[in-house]
Specification:
The structure is a single chain. The protein is of the alpha/beta class. It has one domain: Decaprenyl diphosphate synthase-like (Undecaprenyl pyrophosphate synthetase, 3-Layer(aba) Sandwich), CATH 3.40.1180.10. It is built from 9 helices and 6 strands.
Length: about 250
Amino acid sequence: MDSKAQIDPGKLPRHIAIIMDGNGRWAKQHGRPRVFGHKNGVRAVRETTEAAAELGIEYLTLYAFSTENWGRPRTEVTALMHLLVETLHKEIGTLNKNNIRLQAIGDIAKLPAKTHRALLDGIERTKNNTRMTLVLALNYSAKWEILEAARQLAAQAQRHEIEPEDIDETLFSQSLTTRGIPDPELLIRTSGEARLSNFLLWQAAYSELLFTEIFWPDFSKEHLYQAIVDFQGRERRFGKISEQVG
């Protein structure tokens, strides 16, 4: 039986988040520069997005560029930003055809102007789509996001718009860049690394984590199906015992 046939459509995660890792090492295996890996990673983005939408996943978040990634060689960063613009221009039609809405999280105002414009254009042109939301984490840092939320709430308290005792998990979550987006039930990282790398630290508090050895350019629909089957086989207790959640 293939993995897709094993998926229970009644128990799908609403939100899947993916740390797309291994492009550079994949390129090295093929004797090519790192940018070659990033370009081939676009195919995996397209295939994974289509597979998630076909299954009925409501939200798919992809960690595309972290604040720490600015520390990479300038040629690689420049190529990544160019590739992002190129991909956005090429894929907006596909997103609209598949009724997929584009959103972004992170400090996107600090992206290069051309990249920022292409991103905002994509968000605007897909804003009425309803089948699935594709969220790109760009210039994103979970620590930055948490600090920004804390500053925002502190400023509101200083203006007497809220009282400190009003700050609870719900209010704090609404101050994050992911407000309105459910927390991911499943978080996947490719390439064999087993860490979160400053990604959705608040939101992933109870996410099921899945680490795969597959480099991102090789990640396919089948790998996504396998991850969901694995997720559906787990018992999510949220601090309780099996008898309480059974």
